[in-house]
Amino acid sequence: NTVMAPPMTDAHRRFLQILMSNGITEGSEARKLHQYCCETDKVYYAHDRLDDFISTINSHLQPLFMQIRKGISEDDGRAHYALVNLAETEITKMASDYTEIELELFRKTMELIILSENGFASSTDILNLADQLKTKKMKKKEAEQVLKVFVEDKWLSEKNGEYTLHTRCIIEMEQYILSNYQDVARKCNICHSLAIQSQVCESCGIAMHLPCVRKYFRAQTEPRCPKCNELWSCDIP
């Protein structure tokens, strides 16, 4: 017999609407939003029950192949929540927002970042791709504009001319990346989510996010790989 999902209240609907319009929400913001929605719609608010609140929403989103997923920022290790479309095999969610040529530039940029050593691609390398697009060539100026939009829309993050995948992109594209880049895409050995910016053990090849590396080795005088126990060869951030 199937367990009936708790009913959706106006508070749940309000939370979902705001999350949809934001694209992604940082953990502390999500907690504030949870309180705001419960108080506004006069439903019982339990400060430590955000995940239960979200799983009620998710049980109602299931038939629509949607889900609110939690992910970790690769920069600082903070939790984030994003609404994910589970029905996509390709980058279909983006297809309604961008032209074919823009999507091709995004795919190629994503590939550069995934195949890179450190999880970043330089703007120079990305702009060089603009001349080699199959759909049609893109001028550098044009490509710069498109990259700006990808940053504004939280698909990419940019630091000093280096681009990486935004937390939103990692949460939404995790399955796509893991299935399309099976040889190179790795999950973090500590938090088990996709690791783009990571350190890799030279002996056994496991990957760890930088915030996870910091946390894991915090108390150790001699950092050793959690899997093979060899000395950790990278500098602890």
From TrEMBL:
Keyword 4Fe-4S in annotation: no
Pfam families given in the database record: SMC_Nse1, zf-RING-like
Recorded GO MF terms: ubiquitin protein ligase activity; zinc ion binding
Domain RING-type: 188-229
Coiled-coil annotated spans: none
Entry EC no(s): 2.3.2.27
Keywords: Chromosome, DNA damage, DNA recombination, DNA repair, Metal-binding, Nucleus, Telomere, Transferase, Ubl conjugation pathway, Zinc, Zinc-finger
EC top class named in words: transferase
PROSITE patterns linked to this entry: ZF_RING_2
CDD domains: RING-CH-C4HC3_NSE1 (cd16493)
Broad class of the protein's primary localization: nucleus
Subcellular location: Chromosome, Telomere; Nucleus
Family designation: Belongs to the NSE1 family.
Functional summary from the UniProt entry: RING-type zinc finger-containing E3 ubiquitin ligase that assembles with melanoma antigen protein (MAGE) to catalyze the direct transfer of ubiquitin from E2 ubiquitin-conjugating enzyme to a specific substrate. Involved in maintenance of genome integrity, DNA damage response and DNA repair.
Descriptive protein name: Non-structural maintenance of chromosomes element 1 homolog
Organism field: Platysteira castanea
Gene: Nsmce1
